[in-house]
């Protein structure tokens, strides 16, 4: 099997302001074979630019997309601690997160609240929406530099805190998030993954986990704003949704929320600032059916914009990285 040199493929990447890097594959006729032949060169492109959108592969079904995912990765991951259960199409191949089409999913790094998270995200568009629905990307080092120093220094000192309240009405169930609803097994998982857990009188579970907000990339050491502080915060929710959830579950019983690492609430102004900085540094390109996007999950945040019409984008999480593999930019104690 022939292979393509990283240097030659890098020269073919289209770089335009406001767009992710784009590589045109042309008509391949055999996407998995093309992916295998270009594997190292594609990974070099992602190492250089943080992501790449490959256009022209003609991905049409789960089998073809899954085969491409497997050939480009060092191993696909099963999702854990999920917030909204995805449909599993095949081992390690999932649907996009079921999020209301009219609401954006703001920038985040997949599973940045976990001790082990994907180093690589893979997306395949089988059906493009009529309007909107782009998977935006933003460079985490650039975002970090654009944020106010006082704010990032606080997050570096304290980290960020994720709180969750599990119930049977909204979000993932215990079984969907932990792979089991047996109390002892859930508690074992939490202990092994530095998650505080407390059972409530009504039998529901509340958890807290403190994580670093800034990491150094395991390959090149660059400092990256790596978290889901804004995405999982109450102030990112649509106002009517937030009001309903607070009314039903109380301010301390929201399905998920984020705080400063010392437990202080994060104000609406901070969340708005974070989302504005992300927006100012977002690159986007409308999906076309058959597209593939490869994203370095540590270096590059991703989002999903509102859309109209059917949208079928498959997702795989790959190349697991442990938090301990990334030198944190602070002395945050994970707990």
UniProtKB/TrEMBL annotation:
SUPFAM superfamilies: Clavaminate synthase-like. Gene3D superfamilies: Clavaminate synthase-like (3.60.130.10). Keywords: Antibiotic biosynthesis, Dioxygenase, Iron, Oxidoreductase. This is Alpha-ketoglutarate-dependent taurine dioxygenase. GO terms for molecular function: dioxygenase activity. InterPro entries: AlphaKG_dependent_hydroxylases, TauD-like_sf, TauD/TfdA-like. It comes from Streptomyces griseomycini. Its cofactor is Fe(2+). One of its GO terms (biological process) is antibiotic biosynthetic process. The lineage of its organism: Bacteria, Bacillati, Actinomycetota, Actinomycetes, Kitasatosporales. Residues 29-316 form the TauD/TfdA-like domain. Pfam families: TauD.
């Amino acid at each position: 099997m022939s292979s393509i040199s990283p240097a030659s493929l890098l020269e073919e990447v289209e770089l335009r302001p406001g767009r992710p890097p784009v590589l045109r594959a042309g008509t391949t006729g055999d996407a998995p074979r093309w992916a295998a032949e270009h594997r190292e060169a594609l990974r070099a492109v992602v190492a250089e630019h943080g992501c790449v959108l490959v256009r022209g592969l003609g991905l049409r079904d789960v089998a073809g997309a899954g085969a491409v995912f497997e050939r480009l990765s060092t191993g696909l991951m099963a999702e854990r601690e999920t917030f909204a259960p995805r449909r599993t199409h095949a081992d390690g191949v999932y649907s996009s997160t079921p999020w209301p089409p009219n609401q954006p999913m703001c920038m985040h790094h997949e599973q940045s609240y976990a001790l082990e998270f994907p180093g690589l995200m893979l997306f395949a568009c089988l059906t493009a929406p009529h309007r909107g629905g782009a998977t935006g990307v933003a460079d985490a080092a650039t975002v970090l530099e654009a944020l106010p120093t006082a704010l990032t220094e606080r997050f570096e000192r304290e980290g960020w805190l994720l709180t969750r309240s599990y119930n049977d009405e909204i979000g993932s169930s215990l079984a969907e998030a932990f792979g089991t609803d047996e109390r002892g097994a859930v508690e074992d998982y939490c202990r092994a993954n530095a998650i505080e857990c407390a059972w409530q009188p009504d039998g529901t579970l509340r958890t807290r986990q403190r994580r670093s907000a800034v990491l150094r990339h395991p390959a090149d050491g660059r400092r990256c704003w790596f978290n889901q502080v804004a995405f999982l915060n109450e102030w990112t929710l649509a106002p009517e949704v937030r009001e309903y959830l607070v009314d039903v579950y109380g301010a301390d019983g929201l399905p998920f929320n984020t705080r400063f690492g010392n437990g202080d609430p994060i104000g609406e102004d901070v969340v708005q600032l974070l989302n504005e900085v992300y927006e100012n540094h977002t690159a986007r390109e409308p999906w076309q059916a058959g597209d593939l996007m490869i994203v370095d999950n540590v270096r590059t945040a991703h989002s999903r914009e509102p859309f109209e019409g059917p949208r079928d984008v498959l997702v795989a999480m790959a190349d697991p990285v442990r938090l301990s593999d990334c030198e944190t930019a602070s002395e945050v104690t994970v707990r």
